[in-house]
Amino acid sequence: IQLFSDLMKSRFEMSMMGEMTFFLDLQVNQSPCGIFINQSKYVLEILKKYGMESYDPIGTLMDIKDKLDLDQNGTPVDATKYRSIIGAFMYLTSSRPDIVHAACLCARYQAKPTKKHLKEVKRIIRYLWGTINKGLWYTKDSDFKLTVFSDADYAGCKDTFKSTFEYVSLFACCAQVLWMRTQLTDYGFNFKKIPIYCDSKSAIAISYNPVQHSRTKHVVVHYHFIKEHVEKGTIELYFVKTDYQLADIFTKALPVDRFNYFVRRLGMCSLSPQEMDRLGKLHLSRKDLPRNTPLDRVEDLDTIVPSQQEFDLLFGPLYDEFFTAGTSSVNNSSSLTDNSKQQDTPPTTNIQSSTKPTNPTNINAEENNDNQAKDTQFHQDEFINPFCTPEAMADSVWIEAMQEELHQFDRLQVWELVDKPFCKNEEGIDFEESFAPVARLEAVRIFVAYVAHKSFPIYQMDVKTVFLNGPLKEEVYVAQPDGFVDPDYPEKVYRLRKALYGLKQAPRAWKTRKREMNMQRLSQVQRISCQDQVQKHLKEE
């Protein structure tokens, strides 16, 4: 660990922060038995924000008899507050896949919410209050498999009576699977014959039939790519009855018993902070754990220590420079083992779902005009804009921190004052310079599952600002911002020397530095290889 930390500090100006406990509002609890992620503190913030701490908790999400609809004659409620709650729910799905269906169903009615919709939203909050310690549990040294369930006949809208063709629903599921397969390739897994369990025989039959016929002439051509992957053997389709369709938890309201069963199959359990401390200090047997903890096997994990070979396979390319310092040869690290052996039978282990639905909002022009005044409240919502609290902005610590953030540009020589160039100003966004501010949370869950599979701990590192503000390859000019206006030369502008977009520079900065390391490594290997060939030739002579 110390060797890797020294390498990251020297090459990427990163500092070790210890074992990870928080990441993007996800609470990460690591123990010898596994890794538990949840968002209990975020749930408490939601309860406090909307004054529902005194409400009675419940154990179910939605009433299966009372289906939600448009409710055009219902009493309207504050749309701004409703949307704010829905936004909080969407982020909670990162560690709470059990609320995906209810949250997405309520999100359909953000344009004109009524008391009926708000009642269901409050029911979700009461459910979260009753299951505040619930989260995803990843067992250490567990199996690592990719199994998929597709509820192909779910897509029907009660308001518009529109439905989605089962084959198209299966296509969407296949696209998600292939994305996960690509992500897992970076971890050394090459999954083939991925089993997809679908509850529509017609969709399976069409997928296995390479011939186009009258029943599929209305399907857009690009949906048929699933047939190509079936022919290649990338995926295999199996029929499963609705009673055993695990994807139902994401698509429909379920009875309590069946809902709780699916929650356990998703790998979710409820662990209080006291139980987490107990897991961290003791090596517990199966009977000592909570009844709903889905652990297939608990061993004495003090004896499970990653071997040097496993570390070499994972960090070999980065370690080589340190391991070979002062020597005349370079040891090439082995590539990751190709894990292509998959089982066709349904596994009995827990399945971690990566479904993350979008948040569709369709608002007509008239509705925009009616709600324009209310929408301005979004800028005063700390869930959306964390800088809206006047007390925080007036605090001396806040002012000092912001001044330090601004003066870093002078300290790092990010810009220089020059005359205004004779050029045309263009407003807009350079999309080539835009990056996603954070990683996809599905990828984070895949990483946690892999770490638990390998029985590795997770450490967190911090990147210095000087690394993120990398040099620019083009000329960029900006007007003098407030607080940096030179009183002697107010008409001049700043010419940027380094990037201003902070964390958004991280992917490019990391890639550039990694490319430099690879080129140095390649040059060293070629030089040593050439020396070996010369010595071999001299020996032959």
TrEMBL record:
Transmembrane segments: none
UniProt domain Reverse transcriptase Ty1/copia-type: residue ranges: 425-516
Phylogenetic placement of the source organism: Eukaryota, Viridiplantae, Streptophyta, Embryophyta, Tracheophyta
Name of the protein in question: Copia protein
Biased composition regions of type Polar residues, renumbered to the chain: 330-371
Disordered: annotated segments: 330-374
UniProt-listed SUPFAM superfamilies: DNA/RNA polymerases (SSF56672)
